[in-house]
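User: Hi! I'm working on a homework problem where we have to compare a predicted structure to a textbook description. Could you give me the structure for the chain below?
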Amino acid sequence: MNESSNAPAQAALPLAPATPRERLQITPLPGAGQPAPLSTIAEPGAAGIAAAFAPPPPVARAQETRDALDAVLAREAAGRVVIADAFELLRGLPDASIDLVVTDPPYESLELHRSRGTTTRLTTNWFATVPDERLPELLSSVFRVLRPDRHFYLFCDEVTADVIKQQQGIGARRQTNGGRRCESGFVYWKELVWAKTTLDGTKIRGGTGYHYRAACERVLFFEKGKRALRDRGTPDVLLAPRPGVAGPAVKPSGVVGTLIAQSSAEGELVLDPFAGTGVVGVQARARGRRFLLGDIDLAYLDPQLADVAPAGVARAAQRDLDEPREPPPLEAIARAGEARLLSDAAGMQAAAEAAGWLEHDAPTAALLELLAIRPVEREAAVRRALRNLPARASEPVLLRAWRAWALSGRRR
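Assistant: Happy to help. Predicted structure tokens:
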């Protein structure tokens, strides 16, 4: 484990009382009813346009998610990983049930890097981003689920940090203790900095941008109530190299471990609703904390968390023999007549059936749901759907090639 050299020593703090067990209610997203018929997508009127812009439906396995949340909150399990939309996961949690939140949402400003091509790591549609207008909802939701006297750390870039400060009314006026009150109820303290170093840690590594290369990320530090940090001598610049782990926007274990050690005690519950590779869970477990992780895409989940995740989602080594191949247009798959005109039509049909997109030559609900997503966002949804398909011992070769494309991030 690549631990940060400045991680503070463990000190005993009282454990938080167990949360009473209560059944969680996860409400469906708006517009998550039956998928729109294909005809309304091919020739959209008002209803078809509304369906195309509707949010994607909630992820399956809702019962598994409820059971996992119940088990963690009732202290029947030390940790769980669930497939869930971050906002739905937060909505389903009881008030004052979490001891620490450390997360890295896919912020909207990533689209700037994608459009400019300033970093090849982000020029592919690996994931959909959270719109800036939903950030206030995120902060309010985190504030609600946190217990009193707890901390919240949010990784972001300079652009998103500015957006959040404007939305939260964080200006020059400070309280007598130096903190600044937020619209969500938090006290905002400061920006911590993750300075990205070379692998040997001897110097800062240049990054993206044009006016002085960006070599750091911000970590916004919020507090609900009042809680002392474990080691007040820890600096606000945390040095760590960029992790060499597969997946987009992976955070270094040393930095995450420092935040967890600073702001929680053994036995307390740490939440990351945008889990990604699950580094928050790995570091929480290593320090004796309980944890709850959620994400709509767990294709890059660390194998160390396979025992607490839904079956078949933890990251596995990609087959070297599987050459990435992009699926054909979904509209062509949905129309059997067009599909038969494609090269390797039989292989395409077998792969689409194995992916759950075709049944008896007709499009399934899963395929229609993908078609209802706006074209600009569809590639990310298709990649996510393919990455989340459990690998089977016997499956069409073409499906493996589609999955390899989804994992590789290669564009057409």
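For your comparison, note the following. The longest strand covers residues 146-156. Confidence is low (pLDDT under 50) at residues 1-60, 117-126, 316-321, 339-343. Good luck with the assignment!
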